Amino acid sequence: MFSGSMVALITPFDENGEVDYASLASLVEYHIAAGTDAIVSVGTTGESTTLTVDEHVKVVQKTVEYAQGRVPVLAGTGANATHEAITMTKLMSDTGIVGCLSVTPYYNKPTQEGLYQHYKAIAESTELPQFLYNVPGRTGVDLLPETVARLAKLDNIVGIKDATADLSRVRKTRELCGPEFIQLSGDDATGLDFLDEGGHGVISVTANVAAPDMALMFKLALSGQMDAAREINQRLMPLHKQLFVESNPIPVKWAAHQLGLITYGDLRLPLTKLSENAQPVVEAALKDANVLL
After folding, report:
1. Which positions in this protein are listed as binding pyruvate (predicted)?
2. Can you give the pLDDT at residue 113?
3. What's the pLDDT at 239?
4. Number of structural domains, the chain?
5. Is 246 within a domain?
6. Is residue 252 part of a domain?
7. Quick check: is 283 in a domain?
8. pLDDT score recorded for residue 1
9. Average pLDDT over residues 25-50
10. CATH (domain of 218)
11. Which domain holds residue 174?
């Protein structure tokens, strides 16, 4: 369930800035048809920080409803206040998700002990499987492998999304936490190498617009056909890189709109649409990756 190509799903908005549930339903169908292994709803790429609590819960509920058990759904539930993360986790308890993805507390920069106590409190508040999410480039705090190892001893902390792009951490985390602890890459450009080092899969931005290729690539890799997987990865590398030419999810929402996957490519402030200078860069990456407009 927690391996392969897992998409960090975008949250589509309509022309009035409201959640576009028709496009959301279409996205879910796209991923099921493409063979995406799991959907992560309302994480960073899903613009969790600009949704209201009610919207956040409803988007997750609708994603589960649209999936109809055909693909597992995880939900982003993180916050930089522990009590808020616990509240969000509890609100998700009856939605039908298979687990939670909880980002490290951002801006307030806790110590490693603070991170441990934060995640421990969340884990003790729920029976849902919990995934740690370490993305220092966004949060300003780094969850170190030694702290991950302490947390892995808690029954329902089952894995981590590691977006550091530091491949040496895969082996170290495996040594500290054991092979059963699930390691998922949060960096598309190094995701396949992450798996080759002992990881289990990727939570992918690229999969939003190249879902069939990402699903096939990780199926090949997990079945031992790494050379064939690397051929696909090399073709997708322009996307892995240029979907971050501006802050995620700005480029991927523009690309999804251009591909007709969503009706509008709008974001919520303070994020704005992809700049005119960056649009040709993303368009070229789509063409180079053979993801046609």
Report:
1. 45, 203
2. 98
3. 98
4. 1
5. no
6. no
7. no
8. 72
9. 97
10. 3.20.20.70
11. 4-235
Q: Which residues pair with 203 in a beta bridge?
A: 6
Q: Among this protein's residues, is 161 annotated catalytic?
A: yes
Q: How far apart are CA 51 and CA 21, in angstroms?
A: 14
219 carries an active-site annotation? no
Share of the chain above pLDDT 90, in %: 99
Say whether pLDDT at 293 is over 60: no
- Taking the C-alpha atoms of residue 240 and residue 291, their distance in angstroms, rounded to an integer, is 12
Cα three-residue angle 230-235-37, rounded to 5 degrees: 65
Single-letter amino acid code for the residue at 242: Q
> 159 pLDDT exceeds 60?
yes
Of 120, 133, 172, 241, the active-site residue reads 133
If DSSP codes are grouped into helix, strand and coil, which group holds residue 112? Answer: helix
DSSP per residue, 166-189: -THHHHHHHHHH-TTSEEEES-HH
Catalytic residue, chosen from 66, 116, 119, 161, is: 161
Residue 45 annotated as lining a ligand binding site: yes
* Residue pair 63/24 in contact by the 8 Å Cβ criterion: yes
In a domain, 261, yes or no: no
